[in-house]
Amino acid sequence: MRDPDCIFCKIIDREIPTDLVYEDDQVVAFKDIQPRAKTHLLLIPRLHISSLEQLEQKHQHLISHMVLLLPTLAHNQGLYTGFRTIINTGLDGGQEIDHLHIHLLGGGSIE
Ligand code: 5GP
Ligand code: ZN
User: Fold this and answer.
1) Rg (CA), the chain
2) Which ligand gives the minimal distance to the CA of 1?
């Protein structure tokens, strides 16, 4: 369920403070600590799943819940004309935190 060394599990358990924007019984969404756009959220499952590689059939409902939630999260941030979603997977996919997460970016670059 939970990985004691995982930063995102600690965020879920409120051991690390974060700017939470949404939560329900399955997922949590919060602001990325190093935003690469005016809006940069991370949407994560409460369940510790390391990456897309570890997704199984039993996670079907969870992953569809996450994807279906994205437009609402974007609208709640004032993003009505579009947004970008990114899932980095594994070492060569640029994944730094080994807890499945969907980046939601929009509102223009801040770089
Ligand atoms: P990845 O490269 O794994 O796809 O993305 C990990 C993201 O998590 C990065 O964009 C990074 O800025 C963000 N991040 C890392 N540590 C923390 C943290 O402690 N709090 C928050 N809010 N974001 C974090
Ligand atoms: Zn975790």
Assistant:
1) 13
2) 2
